[in-house]
Each structure stands twice: as structure tokens, then as C-alpha cells.
Amino acid sequence: MPFAKTSTDQNIARFWERYQEKLRERRVKQTAMRWYVLRAEEYIKATQDKRLKTQDATDVTRYLEKMGRKDRIPDWQFRQIVDAIQNLMETADADCLHAVDWEYWRNSAQSLPESHPTVARENWILPSTRPAGQAPLIDAARKLHAKLLDDLVKAIRQRHYSIRTEQAYLAWTCRFLLFLASM
């Protein structure tokens, strides 16, 4: 029995050697390699109920969506997670390697600028946070879509939602409408 454990340990060690060799081929700096390994180990731990080779694009997507929802994760770190998992799947010769749109996930790591219509800002509602004489953007959306927003308020009030919920839904809807208008 000790032979089987040693053999398994050797296989695992060889796998991680191949993983690091692929990182070197991609010109990943030696100082960053440990972080790639940690990211890959975190993925393995999160999906330990399924062997790497048999995972599909849904498994990878679910994990990346979860990681993308984390607060305060920098863009570069998310791209590193994507690269680490892609390298992991390539090393494992996983079935999902070509089914995942890796470039999409790398590109989705970009933060939206503060001027983007879908980014929430306090100056949407609070007059004290915007320059004097400048109408809030929410007013522009209200002027353009008054009937729709009135219907939304009626539906929210019929459900007896709180005033804060009503304000949040209105702000989200206005930002979304302005985003659609900017396309």
C-alpha cells in the first residue's frame, strides 16, 4: 500500500511540474508562479467533487462568476485567476478547455469607468453631491420615460415594498434606461 501512495504523490508532483512548465512557456514571471498555483489549487478545492479532466464549461463558468462577484478583487487578479484555470485545464487535458471562452473572461475583468451609465453614484439622487445648477441624471430618465417609471412605482407600491427599495429600483431602472439610450 505505501507504493500506491508514493505513486500518487509522484503523479501529483509531475502534474504540478507540467503546470509550471506551461507557465514558463507563457513567460509568467517566477515570482508570480506561486500565485498561479494558489489560484489553481483554490479552483481544484472548490470543484473537488469532479475530476479536472471531466469538468465542463459550466463548472468553470460557475466558478468564474462566483469569483467575479467578490468585492474588491482587482482586474489584474481576476485575469490571473482566468489564466491559472485555463493553464490548469490545459495541463489536465480537460474536455472543457476549448468550450470555455477564455478571452471573454479575461476581457470581463475590466472595471467600468465612473462615467458609465450603469455604475451607481450618489449624485443620482442627492443634490448635495452634484455641481450647482446641474440636474441629476435620474431627472433626464424621468422626463424621457415618465409613464414607464410611474407604472413601476405603482407596481412597487402594490407589493408594499419599502421606500428605500422603491428608490433603489427607480435608480437602477433609470440608469439602465440611460445606458440603453447611450448605445
Q: Please, could you describe this protein's structure?
A:
This protein is elongated. It has helices at about 1-25, 30-45, 55-70, 75-90, 100-105, 135-145, 145-160, 165-180. The chain folds into two domains: about 1-105; about 120-180, no CATH class. It has eight helices and no strands. Helix 1 crosses helix 2 and helix 2 packs across helix 4 (about 75-90). The protein has about 180 residues and is mainly alpha-helical. Helices cover about 65% and strands about 0% of the residues.
Radius of gyration: 24 Å
The averaged pLDDT comes out at: 83
- How far the N terminus sits from the C terminus, by CA atoms, comes to 64 Å
User: How many structural domains in the coordinates?
Assistant: 2
What amount of the residues lies in strands? under 5%
Q: Which parts are unreliable, with pLDDT below 50 for 5 consecutive residues or more?
A: 121-129
Order of helices and strands: HHHHHHHH
Number of helical regions: 8
Number of strands: 0
Fraction of helical residues: 55-70%
* General form: elongated
Question: Topology, pairings included?
Answer:
Elements: H1 2-25, H2 30-46, H3 57-68, H4 75-92, H5 102-107, H6 137-144, H7 146-158, H8 163-182
Keywords:
single chain; 183 residues; mainly alpha; 64% helix
Quick structural summary:
Helix 6 (137-144) packs across helix 8 and helix 7 packs antiparallel against helix 8 (163-182). This protein has 183 residues and is mainly α. The chain has helices at 2-25, 30-46, 57-68, 75-92, 102-107, 137-144, 146-158, 163-182.
